[in-house]
Every structure is written in C-alpha cells, then in structure tokens.
Amino acid sequence: MATAETVDLGPVHPPKEDSITAFEQILPELKKTLVHLRHDYNTNPSHPFLEHEPEYFAAAEHLSDQDLVGFSPDDFEAVRVATSAYGIHLFGKLRIPALPDPSGPSYIHFRVFIGGGDEPPKLHSIHTEERQDSSGGKTYRAIFTKNDELEWFDT
Predict the structure, then answer these.
(1) How far apart are CA 131 and CA 67, in angstroms?
(2) What is the pTM of this model?
(3) Minimal CB count within 10 Å: which of 73, 91, 135, 138?
C-alpha cells in the first residue's frame, strides 16, 4: 500500500487536463459520499466512533445538502499527485461555493486513485481531520481553509 513515506507527493499546482478529467469522472460519487458522510456524522452521535462527528461539518451546518455539493469542476482549485507501482494518487482541494468566505473554512480535500489500463478513477476518501488542540483536547473537521496545506492523508 502506498503511504506518504513510500512515494513522493508532488508540489501543489492548479489542476491540469488529466486531473480535471479524473475529477469529472468521480464527481457524482464525491457528491454522494460527501452528503452520506455528513449525514452519518450528524445523525449517529451515539455510535462509539462518531462521538464528536457533528463538529467535522460545523462550518457547513447551515447548508442544505444541495448547497454543500453545489460545486463543479470550476471549483477544483489545487492538486498534488504521487505515483506508485499501483497507479496514481491524486489529492485535490475543492471550494464549496455556498460557503461565502474563501479565507475561512470553505474547502474539502479529497483523494482519488487512478489505476492502470482502462480502470476508471476511484474516489479513495474525503479528508477528515482529528487534531490535538493547545488545551490538550481535540478538534475535528472536514471543511478546510484555503491556507490549509494539501497533504497526504488516508482518511
């Protein structure tokens, strides 16, 4: 399995034609998965693994599902790519246009795997982050800012 330690993740750059084509192919699955992820995190707080999950989507809590996924290829702003023996690992930064402040939380990070041959690109994951804060607690998010770096992630 490819990891941040076993492959070189290229620099951040605007999406090129091949990345946009892959994005367009996974777009319906990305939208479906994002809505499903938010619903799971917001409606299953009694699940032991979902204890803090509503916080992940707090920046977009006022948006309808339709507004949350109202993005298009025009909102695909940045990409990083790594190549492994298995194929291409594409990491993307996507603006949610319904979130009005582009300097605040208004982006999702997603990962796509592009295998060899005629296999279509596959959505690997949408990034969700659990991080230690300065008080010793934890913060949770799935909506990022423009300044948050697009880094390797598995989930």
Answers:
(1) 27
(2) 0.90
(3) 135
Task: Tell me the sheet residues that pair with 138.
Answer: 132
Q: In a 3-state reduction of DSSP, which class is residue 92?
A: strand
- Spatial distance between the Cα atoms of 93 and 110, rounded to a whole number of angstroms: 7
Q: Of 138, 118, 142, which Cα lies nearest the Cα of 59? A: 142
Terminal CA-to-CA distance of the chain, rounded, Å?
A: 14
Along the chain (155 residues), what's the average pLDDT of each consecutive run of 10 residues? 80 98 98 94 62 81 96 98 94 96 90 92 96 88 95 90
Alpha-carbon dihedral 11, 17, 21, 23, rounded to 10 degrees: 30
Two structure tokens written together for 89? 């690992």
